[in-house]
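Hi R.,

Here's the chain you asked about this morning:
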Amino acid sequence: MGSESDNFVSTPYLSETDSRRNRRFPRLVMIWWRQAQRVQKQAHVFYFVFKHPRNPWYAKMIAACTAGYLLSPVQLIPSFIPGIGFLDDLLVLFLGVKLLQKITSVEVLKECRKLADAAEAQRKEEIRSGTALIVPFVIATIWLLGTITASLVIFSHLRR
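And the predicted structure, written out as tokens:
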């Protein structure tokens, strides 16, 4: 336990698909992009660790509390403070990962990582579908039409 193969995320630093993006974005942006992807994968792994039936209750509690803190609007250091705002989030995430690695069996972690990989692949496949491109446009159009209609109704009511 604790070796490099036990880490939650074992992705390369920059993959071949990122090489095209690397030309468009500065190096620092790419580093933050990859870190955000790693955090998203960690969240998936936490979810699957929480839901796994062979996991002890205290491991589920650590996963739930870690994810809850990261999503909570009430934090030790507010996230809107530039720079240091995410330090407490990173610390809680780091401690949560380390604790889960120590108290969760290797088989369960491997299974949860595979489930997270499958969920990520499914999400990417859904994004590529035509429906995933059309639905946000339809929602935005309906919202915009509703906003314009409500504004016109309010304006006509105030004008009387």
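The radius of gyration is 21 Å.

Let me know if you need anything else.
M.
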